[in-house]
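Please describe our next protein:
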Amino acid sequence: MKLQALSLRTKIILSFLVVIVVGGSLTLFFGSRLVKGTIISQAQAKVRHDLAAAWMVFNEKLNDIKEIICFTGSSETLRDAIENENREALCKYLCRIREENQLDMLTLTDDEGKVVLRTRNLDVFGDSQAHDRIVSQALQGGICSYPQIVPRSELLKESETLAERAYMEFVETPKAAPRPENKEDKGMMLKAACPVLDESNQIIGVLYGGILINRNYEIVDRVKEIVYKEDKYKGREIGTATIFQQDLRISTNVKNERGKRAIGTRVSKEVNQAVLVEGKPWIDRAFVVNDWYITAYEPIRSISGETIGILYVGMLERPYIDITNRVILTFAFLAVFLVILLLVILYFSTTRIINPLHHMALATQQIAKGDLTHKVEVQSQDEIGILADSFNRMTADLEAANAKLIDWGKTLEKKVEERTRELREAQAFLLQSEKLASLGKLAAGVAHEINNPLGGILIYSHLLLEDMDRESPYYENLEKIVKETTRCKDIVRGLLEFARPKEPEAASTDINELLDKSLSLVGSQSLFQNIRVNKQYRHDLPRIVADSAQLQQVFTNIILNAADAMQGNGTLTLRSLLDTDGKNIVIEFSDNGPGISEDNIKKIFDPFFTTKEVGHGTGLGLSISYSIIRKHQGTIEVRSKPGEGATFAVKLPVSGAIQDE
């Protein structure tokens, strides 16, 4: 059925609509990226500021410990107790200081770094702490405070409770980097030390102490309270803070699926690489336990500059994504409204253009009927007026030209006679060419003539075989005659198909449906009982114009060859897809048989070439398949290595037409 032509008004409106839609889409696309980039950039700037606030809280706590240690280390009470070797007074005074200031550790050494008193474990003393970098600096007269990783053996000297707090088993965390161990028994401590001086400013000891961060939530909760308050989004807390020991969460207010603090979970692989391995800050989106956050991470370093952990703050990404989506959706609704408004305005504004053109179209109909005197009224001096004036001049020229055509017609008759003579000569040449082409069909005719006596031989040999006793000595010979005659008939039929193939009958074809039909034809054969078929179809393939019967012949032939190659036991994979440029459909048939040697691949499409045993196959199947695919403007290729199976790839054009060869 012929489609109705579109009116000029419709074409103009559609043209403007395409321009508006394309321009609006591009504006919306780049605008959305700009809006998203701006909002996310602002969020990253905020989280960078939040990280600075977190460091302020972290360092403030470290300085508090330092001040406590310095104040206690400079007290006369401590100095007098040390000089008088009054252990009881030392114990009473330092234990009170530790408890009042909620320190996890407060320990005194002598001027050589040997422990004199541990306030949490009075029975363990006399060991040397001179190897400790913080204590060592205090022994040299310095005052310092740093985060420090404390081994389990040192924690046990202070208290079994501290060792238990530090011990953590890893919790499986999505996107975390793999680690060989599954637990951590060391602890991270904010530690400070200062020298204890006598009246002559000589060092008589070192006082050091600190708090264990593992399972201590004071710092992270203080950061959350200062920076994020109690803000929530859809029932979830917006902001979180965490202190990591290496990549392990030891102090956090990030919640897991059960609503508990995610202690024992680990940082993502990307952050691990950037912060712990490369020692760089990370300010970007990251996956935190079970959701995406806009995050900021910075390394925590020890007194020696070694990265021992990470300080983190982060905000839920979802609120910013939702804001971005709302802004983009608002712009989209506004764009749609403006498009509709512009189309309404365009519809009415085209009237001034369409009406004069409509009158001109009516005038052309009159001229087409032979009225060359019809004129168009000129109502304006714009382009349409110029067109009307030109139209009137054109009709005048046509009237003059009509007279010339009558004279030309008389001259044309003579030229027609000359052309007729030339065509007769060309026809004689074509008849001669057809005679020569007929000679090319002689081979096919010979095959056809051989086919008839072969049919008679086959029929009569079958009859003789049915009547002959199986015990007769001639039975086996006659059976061979039947078998070989059948094979000859197959060869002749294949030769006929190869020499004089049937012309394709083009129709709309679904490749996936055709593959299933081909499978159903052969699937019930005993050869396929132990073959597993793996279908990997792409279901949005376009339909193509092809001869489905001929393609089914090709697919069936390749499938049967694959089954023969696997000797009825293996996996056959059928795959349909579009190639990279989307112009061709590719159908692949893969088996896990013994494969094809390189020499045989070069000859596999040659007529009468076969690797099967004598009496099995004519060697024409793939030659015919190759001819059919070529007629469909396609290609057929083979990929194989001995011992690794074979893959036949048929490529057919999506928009190609079937050609005669």
